[in-house]
Amino acid sequence: MNTSALRLALVALLGLTTLQAQTPPAPAAPTAPVATPPADAPASLIPGHKGVPYLGKPHAIPGRIEAEDFDLGGEGVGYHDRTTKNQGLGYRPDGAPGIKGMTVPPGKKPWYKSNDGTPTIGWFFVGEWLHYTVDVKPGLYDIKLRIATPMHSKAFNIYLDKKLIAYIEVPNTGEYSEWVTVHQRAVKVTKEGLAVLKIQAGGMDLDECDLNWIEFVPANPMYINFL
Predict the structure, then answer these.
(1) Are the C-beta atoms of 74 and 94 separated by less than 8 Å?
(2) Which CATH architecture best describes the domain 59-218?
(3) What are phi and psi of 135, to 5 degrees?
(4) 3-state SS track over the chain
(5) 162-183: string of b/e by CB count within 10 Å (b at 16+)?
(6) 146, 143, 150, 156: which is closest to 201 by C-alpha?
(7) How do beta strands 63-66 and 59-61 pair?
(8) Would you list the domain boundaries of the chain?
(9) pLDDT tens digits for 195-207?
(10) For residue 3, which phi and psi values (nearest 5 degrees)?
(11) CA 152/CA 149 separation, integer angstroms
């Protein structure tokens, strides 16, 4: 039997009509890896606000908020700073606002240290601001600021979800090492739940002020502020 006859017999036996060479499928093209954040990566808690709580959870109102613990997110999100350099000593290497240290470094003046030994925001100029994600219990509050400045005509504007709730004037304390507590009494806070607290330096004097903390304390109801 010749080759052609053998091939036809094989085709008939197998029930095939044609024999075709099978080309293996081409391997799938590799896909670029997609970066996924870790499960415990921080995320913004408030729609429309890209900031993330620095300590991992919102600050509580009522309560005290350390000024240096402003939101993560950088310029225009967690803060606004007129300079791009952190003039401080490294508590927040991610943040441009100048943060003064917990102790007096060798060769530095004592105004680098706050009365209670905690870091503070320094070089806080008019127009600059800080954002904090907060969890608010509505109520009547005295709003307190711990400040120091040898400058005149300073003030702070306090906003809650872009609404001005307090305007607190700041006196000349004599030195950056001389700290005083200023306040506005009986501020009615109607917001409940998560919100963005904004602290903005204001006043007529364009020079700087230092800020240690802001505190919301339940107020005596005999005082009422209608701001």
Answers:
(1) yes
(2) Sandwich (2.60)
(3) -115, 115
(4) CCHHHHHHHHHHHHCCCCCCCCCCCCCCCCCCCCCCCCCCCCCCCCCCCCCECCCCCCEEECEEEECCCCCECCECCCEECCCCCCCCCCCCCCCCCCEECCCCCCCCCHHHCCCCCCCEEEEECCCCEEEEEEEECCEEEEEEEEEECCCCCEEEEEEECCEEEEEEEECCCCCCCCCEEEEEEEEEECCCEEEEEEEEEEECCCCCEEEEEEEEEECCCCCCECC
(5) eeebbebebeebeebbebeebe
(6) 156
(7) unpaired
(8) 59-218
(9) 999 999 987 666 7
(10) -65, -40
(11) 8
- The amino acid at residue 81 is D
Which two three-digit tokens encode residue 19?
Answer: 């024999």
Per-residue pLDDT reduced to its tens digit, 72-105: 988 899 999 877 665 555 577 665 566 654 334 4
